[in-house]
Amino acid sequence: MSRLMEAPPGGFRDELTGLVGVVERNVYLVKRYLWWEVAFLLWTVANSFTVVLIAKGVEAAGGRLDVNRETTVLLIGAVVWAYLRVIFEVLTETVQWERWEGTIEYTFMAPLARPVHLLGMGVFAVCFGLVRAAAIFVVMVFAFHLVMPHANLAAALVLLGVASLSFIGLGMMSAVLPLISPEKGTQLGFMAQGLLLAVSGVYYDVAVLPAPLRAVARLSPATYTLDGIRSSIIGGTGVGGLWHDLWPLVVIGAVSIPLGLWVFHQGEVHAKRHGKLKRSG
């Protein structure tokens, strides 16, 4: 038995060389995808930033909280973000799902205009996201016995519908990432979600953000969506009173959808030219 346990001559040195080789190989992989690693680091920082700023939001409220109101604020943030995230993810994973199912070549060769294809994915994402968000909202309201006597659900739904167009456009842009980078493009899409989460006031007022991030928050459709829906659910604000949140969403949607279609087209041309369409890594 002891002989079996003994390493052959030079065995330990060979294994140590192999271990160093494995480490070195991974170092080269990190160097190869260095900018992706930087992006993932930013995503981690954004998530940590989000958690810490929840405490800043409590401080900004003076530390004296109406529990029902603040719980409702957080619930709206969680539910609306869950809805918008579904739209983002379904479109981001458009290419990746086709690769997993082995149908990507058939889909991209089908006699179907690409705008119709992507808009169809967007319509599905909206319907799917609404069902999930409604279920989450109802369960959480009953679980925490929340009272919303002034809620204007009709105005909230109108604003949510307009916001959906903006996120469909952003989702189209993120859908190009798996085309141009089969290895890590999908993960980068999730990183973009994290950055939006950090600057959009999902769990705190954007007023607690540093000045540079407040400027970025003005470009995020989620900022206006959350602000408007909280006003309609908590304060009972009607559609007319939400115009200051509606018009930026209309502008962002009008710009992001055509831009998203153009960006995706450019990515598709690039993927076909460089043989990346069917690659999974």
List keywords for this structure.
281 residues; mainly alpha; 78% helix; globular; 13 helices; single chain
Task: Give structural notes.
This protein has 281 residues and is mostly helical. The protein has 13 helices and no strands. The chain has helices at 2-5, 11-32, 34-60, 67-92, 94-101, 104-109, 114-144, 153-175, 177-180, 185-199, 211-217, 221-234, 243-273. It is globular and about 75 Å long. 34% of the residues are buried.
Give the helices and strands, then pairings.
Elements: H1 2-5, H2 11-32, H3 34-60, H4 67-92, H5 94-101, H6 104-109, H7 114-144, H8 153-175, H9 177-180, H10 185-199, H11 211-217, H12 221-234, H13 243-273
Helix pairs in contact: 3-10, 4-7, 4-8, 4-10, 4-12, 7-8, 8-12, 8-13, 12-13
Could you provide a short overview of the structure?
This protein has 281 residues and is mainly α. The protein contains 13 helices and no strands. It has helices at 2-5, 11-32, 34-60, 67-92, 94-101, 104-109, 114-144, 153-175, 177-180, 185-199, 211-217, 221-234, 243-273.
- Total of helices: 13
Average pLDDT value? 79
Give the topology string: H per helix, E per strand.
HHHHHHHHHHHHH
Report the uncertain regions: none
Proportion in helices: over 70%
The outline comes out as globular
Number of strands: 0
Largest sheet: none
Using only C-alpha atoms, the radius of gyration works out to 23 Å
Structural class call reads mainly alpha
Amino- and carboxy-terminal Cα gap: 44 Å
Q: Strand share of the residues? A: under 5%
